[in-house]
């Protein structure tokens, strides 16, 4: 198994290296598009990794059986944090060459706060980016160590409960106050750093424009993307087992063992669908409130961010995000037949993951003036290369956990 995993990782590494090498050729064609597409791809991957980690911390605080099958997926995605931070290095270079405020002679508008020029100076931005990276890595390491310890306790507990009845609620060993306190602290650090990073990396592409809700929108986007990614992985065909009577109908059986052998109840699909709907509504609400306030004020400095998005060809991407990212999930997730059907729920989660990249493109590329058509092929190449490289990262403690096998028992409905 170890040899197979090494071969599998090598293939992902090779694919990622080829895609990144082809993408880097774009730097000789269009330097602006090169940095803009790298930022869009990295912001998408950051949303997946940081959003998965944040959902892990949130489940530590709330508990609930709904998160048990999702935790292994989130742990796998969050394990890519070191690679994500390594891919952040070109953005540090961009802080000295790419952004408008990095150009010689740039000064903020007269009505801007006095500290803005210092805040957007390349040395200060570089220091902040390094601080964000250090905090993200530190919280990820702290979480990984606690997760490895807790997973071992959980496996020991499940060993004695593999034959539990279908109508018996599986109770995960409850984390103590110290674990919950650590997760709450990590969530606070996450919200603060992501909000500031969204201002430094994305909002400052148009340095004269500012929105106090931009960081909250970024957090909502990442949490939604992380949860959709967890549902996408946990609802894969290899993760589900169905009873013979339900196999043709496409519904999940009442209980299915996962890699960590937690017990899966039929209500999981409904819970996941409801939580997906909650994330979609939260994301749409904060985005609409920002748009409504700016539209009502209708000031030149306020509408500057929306003008290149709504009065150019980018308006089609914005319309797609509204229709496919809000109205379609809002309608589909109202039906239990969608939430409790594996294929339909998985398809919806996949669509939301793809729209996460589309949203990253929406918030970055229109803010960069003078982009050429080369961005059309550079943007997907950058995302494909980064995603493949992130896939090569091993799960912390994976080898040790393989040495703790447990027997799984699928429980049929009605027993």
TrEMBL record:
The keyword Transmembrane applies. It comes from Eoetvoesiella caeni. The chain crosses the membrane at residues 12-29, 35-58, 79-99, 119-136, 182-203, 209-232, 275-294, 314-335, 347-365, 371-390. The keyword tRNA processing does not apply. This is Quinol:cytochrome c oxidoreductase quinone-binding subunit 2. It comes from the Bacteria. Keywords: Membrane, Transmembrane, Transmembrane helix.
């Amino acid at each position: 198994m170890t040899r197979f995993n090494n071969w599998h990782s090598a293939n992902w590494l090779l694919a990622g290296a080829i895609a990144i090498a082809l993408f880097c050729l774009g730097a000789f064609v269009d330097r602006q598009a090169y940095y803009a597409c790298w930022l869009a791809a990295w912001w998408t991957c950051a949303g997946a990794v940081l959003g998965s980690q944040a959902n892990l911390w949130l489940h530590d605080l709330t508990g609930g059986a709904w998160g048990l099958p999702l935790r292994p997926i989130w742990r796998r995605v969050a394990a890519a944090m070191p690679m994500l931070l390594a891919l952040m290095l070109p953005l540090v270079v961009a802080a000295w060459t790419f952004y408008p405020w990095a150009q010689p002679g740039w000064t903020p508008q007269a009505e801007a706060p006095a500290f803005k020029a210092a805040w957007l100076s390349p040395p200060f931005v570089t220091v902040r980016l390094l601080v964000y990276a250090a905090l993200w890595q530190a919280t990820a390491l702290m979480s990984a160590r606690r997760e490895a310890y807790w997973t071992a306790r959980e496996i020991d507990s499940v060993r004695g409960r593999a034959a539990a009845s279908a109508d018996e609620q599986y109770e995960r060993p409850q984390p103590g106050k110290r674990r919950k306190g650590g997760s709450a602290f990590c969530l606070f650090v996450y919200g603060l750093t992501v909000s500031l990073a969204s201002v430094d990396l994305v909002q400052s592409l148009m340095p004269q424009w500012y929105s106090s809700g931009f960081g909250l929108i970024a957090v909502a986007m990442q949490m939604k993307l992380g949860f959709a990614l967890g549902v996408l992985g946990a609802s894969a065909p290899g993760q589900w087992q169905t009873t013979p009577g339900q196999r043709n109908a496409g519904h999940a059986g009442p209980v299915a063992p996962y890699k960590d052998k937690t017990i899966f109840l039929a209500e999981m699909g409904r819970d996941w669908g409801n939580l997906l709907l909650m994330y979609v509504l939260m994301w749409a609400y904060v985005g609409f409130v920002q748009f409504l306030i700016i539209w009502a004020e209708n000031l030149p400095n306020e509408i500057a961010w929306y003008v290149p998005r709504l009065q150019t060809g980018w308006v089609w991407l914005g319309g797609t995000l509204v229709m496919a990212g809000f109205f379609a999930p809002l309608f589909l997730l109202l039906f239990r037949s969608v939430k409790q059907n594996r294929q339909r729920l998985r398809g919806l989660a996949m669509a939301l993951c793809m729209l996460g990249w589309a949203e990253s493109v929406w918030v970055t590329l229109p803010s960069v003036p003078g982009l050429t058509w080369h961005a059309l092929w550079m943007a997907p190449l950058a995302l494909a290369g980064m995603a493949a490289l992130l896939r090569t990262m091993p799960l912390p403690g994976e080898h040790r956990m393989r040495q703790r096998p447990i027997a799984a028992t699928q429980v049929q409905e009605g027993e």
